[in-house]
Structures
1.
Amino acid sequence: MSQERFWVLIAKKIAKEANEQELIELNQYIQDHPEWQFAIQNLENIWEIPLPNNKAEAEDAFMLHLNKIAGNNTNDFLEEQNTPKNSIRIIPKWVYYAAASLVIVVGFTYSLFKPSFSPALVKVQLESNEVSTRLGSKTQVKLPDGSIVWLNGGSKLVYQKEYGKILREVSLIGEGYFDVVKNKEVPFIINTKSIKIKVLGTIFNVKAYPEDKQTETSLIKGKIEVTIKNRPDNKIILSPNEKLIVENELIEAQNKRKSIELIPAVSINKLKFISPDSSVAENQWVENKLVFRDQTFEELALMMERWYNIKLEIQSTSLKSTRMNGNFEKETIDQAIEALKLIIPFKTYQKGNTIIIYQ
C-alpha cells in the first residue's frame, strides 16, 4: 500500500465514509505497521470536532500534497470532473479530513484549522514520533508494545520509529503516567533532562517540566532503576510507594562547583495516601483531579497554569512561600481562586490571560 493510499483510507474512516473492504484493507495495514497505531488513535481524537470553517484551504492543502508526489497519479484518489469553472464542485467530506490529517502529521500549519479543543498534537518525523499536549488538556497514548502513557498538560513524549524492535526508549518533557507492559528482554527507558529511568514492567509517574525546580518520579507498582544525569555511576532503585525528588538547580550548581556540597540534591520519600480510597496525590491528575499537598503557592500556581491554561503572577514574596493543601476537580479557575482565598487572604485582578495575585 502506498503512503497516499494509507492517508486516504484514514481520512475516509474518520469521515465515516469508508466501506467494509476499505476498513479491512486499513486494519491489515495497521496490523503490519503497529508503530502507526497511536498516531491514528490520536488523529481520530483530534477530529472529534467540527470540520474546519475554511474548507477550501483544507482541499487546497490536500491537492498541493498530491501534486508534489512525483510519478503518482492523483486520479487514484480523486476522479477528475468535467465541471464548468463557475459551477459548484462537490467534494467528498473525507477530502477535508485527509488534508487536515496530512497537515497535522507533518507538523506544520496546524493553526490553519483552529480547532476549539485538541487532546494532542501528533508529529511524525523522519526518525521519531512525537506527541504533545496543550496547556489545559491531557491525552492518552498507546505505544506499539501496548504500554500506555497519560500525558498531562504542556507535556511532550518522543520515541523512535524502531521502538519495541530492539529497545523501548522514550524522551519526556513535562509529566507522564506510565503503565508499562512487562518485557524482560527489552527494558523500557525514559529520558528526561535530569534523570534516566529503566524499567521492566511497572506503573509510575514522572514529573519533569523544564521550568520546575524539581524532577519527581513516583513508583506505584513494580520496581525501577533511576540514574541521575550528572551521576552516571550511582543508580537508585525505587520500591513501590516511594518518590524520588531531584533538585534540578542544585545539580547544575554542583556541576560547576564540585568541591562544594550545598544540600543533598536527591531525596527519597514515602508516598502519602489520600483517604478514603488510599490513592496518592501524584497520579490523581489522570483521574481529572488537581491534588496538592504541602505545595507552596508558587508551586501550585505552576500546576494551575498547566491545568487551566492561564497565567498566574504572584507579586507578594510571602504569598509565594505559603504552603497549601487541597484539591480541585470540577472547579473553574474563578472558583479555584475564590477557594484559595479562604486559605489565605489575597486580592486579584485579571489582565488578558494573566491573573495578578497580590496582598
2.
Amino acid sequence: MFIRSINSYRRITLGFVIIASGLFLSGCVERPVSVANSATVKIVSRACQQGDPMTQTTLYFGLNRPNGPVITAKEWQSFVDNEVTPRFKDGLTVFDAQGQWLGHNGLVAKEKSEALMLIHTNTQESEQAIGTLQGKYKTQFAQESVMRIDHPVCVGF
C-alpha cells in the first residue's frame, strides 16, 4: 500500500509538472507584436503559413483644412498620383472614410477622410517613404496629423 501511494504521488507530481511546463512554455510562442516608440511603430516579423511576411500600413488623411476650403477630390487624386504612387509602385488601395470624435465643447465633430492602404516590406526605405508622405500631406494641406496604423500580414498572390 505504501509503495502504491508513492507511485500515485509520483504520477500526480509528474502530471502536474508536465501541465505546468506546458502552460509556462506556451507563453514563449512568438506572437505578432506592435511596439510603440513615441510616434513611430515597429512591427515584429512573424513566420507565415502561406505567403510572405509583410506590413500593412493604413494612413488616414483628413479632408478639412483648419482655415480654408475642404480638400477636393481633384487635389486628393493629384496627391495620390504624384506623391504616393511613385513611392509605392507595386500598388495601393484608397477608400473613403468618415472620422468622428467628441470635441472639447461636448459636440460630435465629423470629418470626411481618405484612407490609404499600403502593403510593403518592413524596410528603412518604406518607413522613410511613409514618413515623407505624412509630412508632405501635412504641409501641403495644413494638417496637424496623418494617422498611421500598422499590422503584420502574410501576403500571397
3.
Amino acid sequence: MSSTGQPGRRVVRIGSLTVGDGPAVVFGGAQGRGPHADGLRLSLARVTAGDRPAVLAKARASWDGPLLAEPAGPGDLPAVAEHADAVVIGAEWTEDAALLRAAAGLRLPVIVRRAPGASLAAWLEAAGRCAEAGAPGVVLCEDTGQGVDLGLARAARERGELPVLAAAGDGAGLAAAAVAAGVDGIWLAEDAPAGQVAAAREAVTVVGALLRDERPATVAAARDAIDRTDAALAVILERRAALAGVVQRLKPVGGFAGRDPERERRIVAAMARRAPRLGERRLAPIMKAVIESGLHLAEELRGSPGDNGGEPAPGPETPAAARRHHD
C-alpha cells in the first residue's frame, strides 16, 4: 500500500491522513481502535517471526484508516510494504545505515523514533538520511521509552521543518501539554484502551482549537476547524459558568441584583484587547448573554425564585427588568 508525502513545510501524507497541517492527530493501538483514533500503530517485536505477515494482514483487514507498522527486523519489510501506510523505525534502525536505507527504500513515509539519549542533531540526522534514501515523507516521534522531552520535540519541529509526534504513554495525561507544545500528533501506547484514546482526542480538540494555527483550504476543512473551536468554546463557557456560580455564592449580594456594570465593562475591554477585530462593540452583547446565562444558571442551582422547576432558563431580560436589577 503506497502513501506519498506532500511538498511543503512539516506536512506528510500517511494514507488518507495529513500530518503536520490542520489538527493534531491521534495514533493508538488495537485496543483503542475506534472513531477517536486517526491511525493504528502496530509493533511486530512482540509477535513471533513466522506470524508477523499474518498479523499485519489481519490488522489491515480490520482497520480502514492509516496503519503504522514497526518491523522487528529486515525480514518484516516485505509484509510492511504490502499492508502498512507508514514504517516506524526505532533506535536500532536509526543507528544502522543499512537498516535505515532498507526501511526508507519501501517508499513509505517513515516515522523516526528518537533513540534513548540521542541528541536533537542525531535525531534530525537520522530523519535526513531517511529522506535521502527515498522516503516520500518523514515524521519525527519523541518516544524513547524513558519519558518525553516536550522541549526537544518543539525544537525538532522548529529546526527540522518536519511533523513531530509525542508519546503520551497509555493515557492522555500528557496529550494536552504536548499539543500546547506544538506537536502534530499524540502517540499512545499500543495497549491504551478506547477511553484513553477518546481522552487524548478531547485534549487535542480543546487545546488545539486554542493554540494550534490552522489554515484550512476548503469549506469542509474550515467547518471542521470551526467545530473544534466550538467544542473548546463550550468547555470554556461551562467552566466560566461554574466559576461565576462560585462568585455569586461568595458575594454579599449575588444574582442579577448584585451585578457590577463597571466590572462587566472592564471584562469587555480586556477581551477586546485580545480580539481587536471584534472590538468592544461586538463583544459587549456576546458577554452580556454569557454573563446573564451564568446568572440564570446560578439562580436555578441554588433554588432561588429564579428557579423554574427544571425548565430551561428564561431568555434575556427585558430592559425594564434589567433596570430593576441594577437599581
4.
Amino acid sequence: MNELVKVGCHDIVEIKWRGQKVVTTAQLAEVYEASDTQIKQNFNNNEKHFEEGKHFFLLKARELKEFKNLVENFDLVAKNTPQLYLWTHKGASRHCKMLGTEKAWEQFDNLEEAYFNPQTSINMDDLDPDTQLMNLLVRNISRQELEQKRQREEQKRQAEKLEQLDNRIDAIKEVVSLRPNAWRKDTANIINKMALMAGGYDHIKTIRDESYRILEERMHAALNIRLTNKRKTMALNNVCKSKLDKLNILDVIADDPKLIEGYISVIKDMAIKYGIADAKDILNEN
C-alpha cells in the first residue's frame, strides 16, 4: 500500500518502481516549490546529462498501465496522459542543482532524509550540541561541494556552447567570404559542411544536385544541355575522350560569370537552410 510521507511541510505519496523509490514531476515540483514547467524545461535543456534508469524512468504503454494499477487510489497520473517521468534519488538531486534555489536545497535535504533514506533520519534535538554543530558543518560542506560541482558542470556546458559558437562563426566566415576567383574550392567546402549537418558525406551528391536544380530555376539555365554542347564543341576540336569524360556541371558554370555569381548566391542560401550560417550574418557581410 502506498503511504504518505511528510517532506518538510508537504505530504507526498511514497512510490516505488523497479525496486527503488521515485517521485513524479508533479511531486518534485511541489516539494521544491517550483512549477511543473520549470522541472520539464530544466530537463529538456539538459537532457544529455540525464541517464534513463539512473536518473529517471520514462513510462509508456504497458509500463504506464502497470504503474497506474499500482497507484490507482491516488491522483498521481492524469487519466489520458501518454507518458510519465519518474525521478530517482539521483534525478531529484540533479533537479535540485539545476533549480539552485535555497528552498530547493532545503527541501532536497528533507526529501533525502524523510523519503529516499528515512533510516538515516535523526532527530537533531536528541543530539548533544557538539554533534549537532558537527552535523550542521558536514551538511554545509556537502552542500558547498554540490554547488561547486554544479558550477563546474555549468562552466563545462558554457565551454561546450562557446566551442559550438566558434565553429559556427568559422562556418559563417567561410560562407560570407566565398571568393569569385576560388569559388569551386570554396563552394565544395561549404557543401561538405552541409553534408555533415545533414548526416554525413553520403549526402554530398544530393546536396550538389539540389544546388544545380536551384541554380537552373533561378537563372533559367539548362545546365545539362550546356554540358552536352560543351562536350560536342570540345570533341570537334579533337579534345581527348578522357578529358571529355571528366567534364561536369561546374565546368559549365565556370564558362559564365553570371552563373558563377548565381551559384555562389545559391550556396549561401543553402548554407542558411542547412544551419551553418545565419541570414543576418551573410547579409551584414554583403
